[in-house]
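Entry 12.
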Amino acid sequence: MPSIPTQEAINRHPHLAEKCPDGWIRVDFHSHTMWSGDSTTTPDEILRCVVESGIDVLCVTDHHAVKGAFELKEDLPCRVVIGEELKTYAGEIIGLFLTERVPQGIPPREAAELIRSQGGLVYIPHPFDPLRNNLRPEVLDELVEAGLVDGIEVMNGKTSLRSLNQKASDYAKEHGLAIGAGSDAHIAEALGSAYLEMPDFQTVTQFLDGMRQGVPVGHHYDPPRQWRPRIVPSTVE
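Predicted 3D structure (tokens):
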């Protein structure tokens, strides 16, 4: 049964007021916690905002770390997909449904192959946003041609230009790729700003099939962050 967003979350993200279709769920494909290093979001803050937003599945995709995702999997009221956003020499790649950390700094093809070797999905975040560490277009083309990309992000909550999200959507259609959408939240209040409505799933294969049927929902939401002193946990494996 899908969760129900609170009025506080709806005030931040009005699209949350729309009912999710029966049998479908809200999946945020891209989020960060204090394990990322560039986010100060604590588990308690994530818990509060997950409840407020009504997100049913949260993909925790910290930079070069999976420890936070594994810990949150036990504590959040929503389902958690273990993910990681890792940097390659040609830009960032996200692995979903991971069982262990993928090292940063390796070539893009090796990263994709390591993700697949874990039974995970290769997901390309913010693919055409020049203000982000997006994967270089020629490298994206190479990975797609090699059959090493499962899906790309067609809506990113921190990408301010709709044209860039539309370019990603057009690319997905042209190349027959599954789609995803995510808040790219670096503060907890951003959860729910962007997500994919898709059929519920039980397996990774069903998840990928659901992505192909999914509908991106959301808006740009990237308010200034109020940095607070925190003891950031180690991400060393």
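Annotation: Strands lie at 24-31, 57-60, 79-88, 91-96, 121-124, 151-156, 178-182, 194-199, 215-218. The chain has a mean pLDDT of 93.
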